[in-house]
Design a protein that fits this description.
This protein is α/β, with parallel strands linked by helices and 328 residues long. Helix content is 29%, strand content 27%. The protein folds into 2 domains: 142 residues, Alpha-Beta Complex (Quinone Oxidoreductase, Chain A, domain 1); 140 residues, 3-Layer(aba) Sandwich (Rossmann fold), CATH 3.40.50.720. Helix 1 crosses helix 9 and helix 2 packs across helix 7. It binds NADPH dihydro-nicotinamide-adenine-dinucleotide phosphate.
């Protein structure tokens, strides 16, 4: 028993506070596996949790950090033994269960995925929840029967975490990727990930028509609101759009026109409660399709003490790609 360094969110008279503390082992929550965390990341949801801009945290005190990678330190479950490398995303970790911005976590064995062979903990967190969600989106489009032969695919929020990894994965799979971004300065970055065309997000972010010109066969949308409505209205006959985010807004001001006149499908993507079998499939594919150099080109590495600053920046749309957090 001892203490370890952690970022802790507490309820305050007005809103919440986030401070670095020495956290007691004995205050860890129930679980059958204890993990020594080596890396975490900063996702959009972590930004919401740390700044308190949205009520993401449902239990106080909370250690935020919705994902982490590390090594099993103690296990009461035969599925894992001491020394196993593992990755965790979702399941309410960092929201209702103590999360990844700490040197240690105790969690349910069912929540852990063995780190795929060849993937380092740092690269697993370069992927993190955002990359895992991008992969789930692509698996959903593929299950719908869509292939690169159907036509181009559009990716919104392209310079962000989900968007960057979606662009890289889709380009690698042979799709012509149209990357939508509000940051023209990131056009070269997006091309380096494999984007064929860059679209200014202003073209899609305002109110649109129920049906527009058919421009793409598929989409991965991490933005929601008018952007998703416009992506749907410009999707080709029989196409599909995977909706996984709300960076512009939670609303969806659309009509049934794309669905009933073009047979377009809207595919919902949730990474938090995703069943274990699909998690293992997605992680295997991520480890295979994204090499180390590609992951390095879309990620920056920060220390735990830098996380509050990155949390503000990610909500302001100022973070490019992915942020890995090293935990001492
Ligand atoms: P990032 O902040 O890294 O990326 C979001 C991107 O969206 C930004 O980089 C920006 O891209 C774009 N964007 C931001 N604000 C706006 C706006 N007002 N209008 C249009 N575009 C905007 O976040 P993540 O990639 O980590 O997450 C993206 C979204 O996906 C979030 O809403 C997050 O909550 C959600 N998410 C959902 C998951 C699920 O399980 N369904 C799991 C993981 C994430 P650019 O600068 O290129 O325009």
């Amino acid at each position: 028993m001892g203490t370890f360094k952690a970022l802790r969110i507490d309820k305050a008279e007005k809103g919440t506070t986030a401070n670095f503390v020495d956290f007691n082992d004995s205050d860890l929550m129930d679980g059958d596996v204890t993990v020594k965390i080596s890396h975490s990341t900063v996702n959009y949801k972590d930004g919401l949790a740390i700044t308190g801009r949205s009520p993401v945290v449902r239990r106080f005190p909370m250690i935020p950090g919705i994902d982490f990678a590390g090594v099993v330190e103690a296990s009461d479950n035969p599925a894992f033994k001491v020394g196993d490398a593992v990755v965790l995303t979702g399941w309410g970790v960092g929201e209702t269960h103590l999360g990844g911005y700490a040197a240690r976590a105790r969690v349910k064995a069912d929540w852990l995925v063995p780190l795929p062979t060849g993937l380092s903990p740092a690269h697993a967190m370069a992927i993190g929840t955002a990359g895992f969600t991008a992969m789930l989106s692509i698996l959903a489009l593929e299950s719908h029967g869509l292939t690169p032969a159907a036509g181009p695919v559009v990716v919104t929020g392209a310079a962000g975490g989900v968007g960057s990894i979606a662009v890289a994965l889709l380009a690698k799979a042979g799709w012509d990727v149209i990357a939508v971004t509000g940051r023209p300065a990131e056009a070269d970055y997006l091309r380096s990930l494999g984007a064929k065309e860059i679209l200014d997000r202003a073209e899609l972010s305002g109110p649109g028509r129920p049906l527009g010109k058919e421009r793409w066969a598929a989409g991965v949308d991490s933005v929601g609101s008018h952007t998703l409505a416009n992506v749907l209205s410009q999707t080709r006959y029989g196409g599909a759009v995977a909706a996984c985010g709300l960076a512009q807004g939670m609303d969806l001001p659309t009509s049934v026109a794309p669905f009933i006149l073009r047979g377009v499908s809207l595919l919902g993507i949730d990474s938090v409660m995703c069943p274990k079998g699909r998690r293992i499939t997605a992680w295997a594919r991520l480890a295979h399709d994204l090499d180390a150099a590609r992951l390095d080109s879309m990620s920056q590495t920060v220390k735990l003490e830098d996380v509050p600053g990155v949390a503000e920046a990610i909500l302001d749309g100022k973070v490019r790609g992915r942020t890995i957090v090293t935990i001492d």
